[in-house]
Specification:
Elements (H helix, E strand, L loop, with lengths): L7 E10 L4 E10 L17 E2 L8 E7 L10 H9 L3 E5 L13 H15 L1 H4 L2 E11 L1 H10 L15 H4 L14 E5 L17 E7 L13 H4 L5 E5 L13 H6 L1 H4 L6 H15 L1 H5 L14 H13 L1
Parallel strand pairs: 1-3, 4-5, 4-6, 6-7, 7-8, 8-9
Antiparallel strand pairs: 1-2, 2-5
Helix pairs in contact: 1-9, 2-4
């Protein structure tokens, strides 16, 4: 069953305060009102109506977390497409940390923080369907999603992270797990070398899209996540694509400053984005097509061979 664009896309910026400080995020949502768009941050092309009224109804929520050296608008093309199909998408801004490895849990905490804010805020809680909350994260943002899904890091597994073990050993990563998220789509997730095997508890579903070309320093191939989450329900490889193909098309001035970050290699970024939008909508189809009905989560362990495989993993744990 296909998912059609039924709405225009609205966008606004939100701010909220938590125990860390003041945070900012971009919020995309369905609307029926057209308002001339303005470039995001003055440079990124926008198709969204700024501060337009929200369409009537309740809509599933997606928290979208960017990677390192990116920002809340780095995946705007994806957020716009999801909003046009009936989802609310919020992309919190993770400010650059001088000691990001030492505070590697911060991105996951920020995602939980924005979810708490939206669920308690009178303006937004009335339009969000909290029975259908999803997550999308790219690179280190994907790692943040893995922690939210229940994966546990072991920084001693990678020599370059052994030095930050002490800074993180007081963090109870089991508390980072957030069961309010129901589905996780990880885009070229980073740091596969520091994660332990994780079996999902049946109340969360994890999928992954990874690029064929390993042209970025991700501290472990993203494709290794299929071994970290052996009961992952969905995996797709983007052929002839690199790590940064997931980002919004960049203006020429950015391409000169960050050629690896902005430049396509063997395929058109716009073509890849069309495919990525299609795959993303397919992964979250249950949210959109059945958003008022609780739906059992998918499981990848239905065949007799798969059940045997899971039993073996449980013995390992």
């Amino acid at each position: 069953m296909s998912i059609n664009q039924q709405y225009l896309c609205g966008v606004k910026e939100i701010q909220w305060r938590d125990q860390v400080g003041v945070n900012i995020a971009a919020l995309w949502y369905p609307t029926h009102t057209h308002i001339p768009s303005q470039p995001y941050l003055g440079v990124y092309q926008s198709l969204a109506s700024p501060n337009a009224p929200t369409a009537p109804g309740r809509f599933p929520l997606i928290v979208l977390m960017h990677g390192s050296e990116a920002n809340r608008y780095s995946h705007a093309y994806l957020a716009q497409a999801l909003a046009q199909c009936g989802l609310v998408v919020v992309a919190p801004q993770m400010e650059a940390l001088t000691a990001e490895r030492e505070q590697i849990w911060r991105r996951s905490g920020l995602c939980s923080s924005v979810l708490s804010f939206l669920s308690k805020n009178e303006q937004f809680s009335s339009v969000i369907d909290l029975k259908h909350v999803g997550f999308i994260g790219h690179s280190i943002g994907g790692f943040a999603g893995a922690l939210l899904a229940g994966a546990q890091p072991n920084f001693l597994r990678h020599k370059e992270f052994a030095g930050v073990h002490g800074a993180n050993e007081k963090v109870d990563f089991k508390q980072v797990r957030d069961r309010r998220f129901h589905k996780f789509l990880l885009l070229d997730p980073a740091l596969s070398d520091v994660l332990e095997l994780c079996l999902l508890d049946g109340k969360a579903e994890v999928g992954m899209v990874y690029s064929e070309l390993e042209d970025a320093r991700t501290f472990g191939p993203p494709k290794n996540y299929k071994h970290i989450f052996p009961d992952m329900s969905y995996i797709h490889c983007l052929k002839q694509c690199g790590h940064f193909v997931y980002n919004h098309p960049s203006p020429k001035v950015f391409q000169k400053l960050y050629p690896q970050f902005c430049t396509d290699r063997y395929v058109s970024r716009q073509d890849v984005h069309k495919l990525l939008i299609k795959k993303t909508l397919g992964f979250f189809a249950g949210f959109v097509l059945n958003k008022y009905t609780a739906k059992p989560f998918m499981t990848a362990w239905t065949s007799p061979m798969a059940k045997v495989k899971r039993e073996l993993y449980e013995q390992i744990l």
